[in-house]
Every structure is written in C-alpha cells, then in structure tokens.
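A quick aside before the break. I want you to see a complete sequence-to-structure record at least once, exactly as it would be stored in a machine-readable document. Don't worry about memorizing anything.
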Amino acid sequence: MKRVLIITVTAALAAAAAKAWVYKGQWGGFNAPYGIAVAPNGNVYVTDRSGRVQYFTATGSFLGVWGGLSTPVGVAVATNGNVYVAEHFGHRVQYFTATGSYLGKWGKEGSGNGEFNRPEAVAIAPNANVYVADGLNHRIQYFTPTGSFLGKWGSPGMGDGQFNNPGGVAVAPRGRVYATDHRNGRVQYFTAAGSFRGKWGSHGEGKGEFENPRGVALAPNRDVFVADHYNDRIQYFTPTGSYLGEWGTRGGGNGQFYYPWDVAFSPTGARLYVTDCWNNRVQYFNRSSPAVVPTSLGKVKALFK
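That is the input. The structure line, written in tokens, reads:
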C-alpha cells in the first residue's frame, strides 16, 4: 500500500513540475485582438480589428486608446516607450509616444525597399532598429528607429531563408532574429543582417509542428514561445528549436484559446500575455515555481518517515 502511495506521489510531483506556465487572469473588451507588446514600465499595448491601439496596466485596467488605423496588426514598444504599429491594409509602419501622440511613419504599398504588402508584425532590436515581417512580399525588412531603410532578406518559397507569409518576428538580446513562417508551418532564425542560421517545424498537430504559426516572443533565458494559431495552443522551445512544452486547447475556458494571435513577455519574463483573437480577450500566464521532484525511491520514502 505504501509503495503504491509513493509511486502516486512521485507521479503527481512530476506532473506539477512539468506545468511550467499557469493561468493567472484575463480581460476583454476587444474586437478580434491581434498584436500585443509590453512596455518597459509593464503597461500592455494591444491592437485590434477596430483600427485602434488600447493600453492597460499589467493586469488589464484600462489606461487609454487611440485609433484611426488601417487594420493595425503588429505592435512593439521601444526602450524609450515609443510604440510602433504595423498597419496591415495601410501597408506602412507608424510610431507614437507611449500615450498615442503621433511621431512619424514610413512605407506604402509596393515591393521596393521600404515598401510593404500587408505587413504582419514588428519588433525592436536591442540597438533600436525596427524589424518588420512584410507578409505578402515574403520577406523581413529592417530600419532605423525613424524608418530609414537598412536591409532586407527573403523571397517566396520553402527553401532556407524563404517565406510564405511571415507572420511574426522577434529579436534576441544579441541580435538573432526569429520569424514565424506562417503558411510554411515553421520557425526560422537568422543573424541581425539576415544570414540563415536554422529552422524547425512542419505542418501538423504534434510536438514541434504548427498550423499557421503567428506571434513569437523570447523569454529572458532566450527560450522561444510561439502562438500556434490554428492548433489553439502556445508551444515553446530552446533557442535552436528543441521542444520544451505547450499548453492550450480549443475553447473559451481559462487557458483555452480560439486562434491565439500574438505573445509578449512582461519586463521580468515571469508573465506571458496572449491575444486570444476570436475569444476577444487577452489571457496571461505566470511562470510557476517548479516542484522539487525526488530523484529516487529512497528520497520519496523519506517523505513518509
């Protein structure tokens, strides 16, 4: 009887240790939220289909809004608090102060340098350069903080460094760039100037597989978190793509999703925010403290002495 109890306790502790991210809260009031970004002060910025950017405290208390945008999808916040927004049907990037005062813009519809065809996402590098997932041009472009063109890479296809509608982009502290290759069902990563370094993923529902991945975010330890859009889950990986874990199923309950679109970390990395698009809400999850799992039967027995 004692041995059965010991085995049961061991299994329960192992399961608790494996649950690295736990549901903490949510808030709504959106019309299909798309992009999400967190400012250095912890405020959370969200774009939605109504053509606006809303911002909130870390737990969802409303702070402000501005609008008049043409399907704002991607959003990113620089270290100085400026907010960059990729306008999907506006084919441009606009940037604002932390409270929404207009600062500048660049881009127009086209395929030339600094032009866009339905940009999907935007990210800020440690050196303040701005990276844009240029969706239907099937490429990544990058710019100075005020929009001067610096470089680009990518072309249509399934080869290394090619894309079929890149849907998300994130930049690591040392400049490595991660991009979700939306319709190719994978993640690719590159140097800051676009040299291909690796990839993982394929179409499917298994571990490390994707169905139209979108948002991507990097934890402080450089683990890579991906919004697996049509699989209604979040998956996470080492920086080179080794599978670490996942959570989420289709539904409207706590910790469930209906087309998660984007992911973003709090400044400390202890909290992850997810735009739950067709549930019209943001959910957030806290990193749990891992349980101490005994590594031998002897150690488990010691618990019962």
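Two observations worth writing down. Residues 1-18, 291-305 have pLDDT under 50 and may be disordered. The radius of gyration is 20 Å. We'll return to this after the break.
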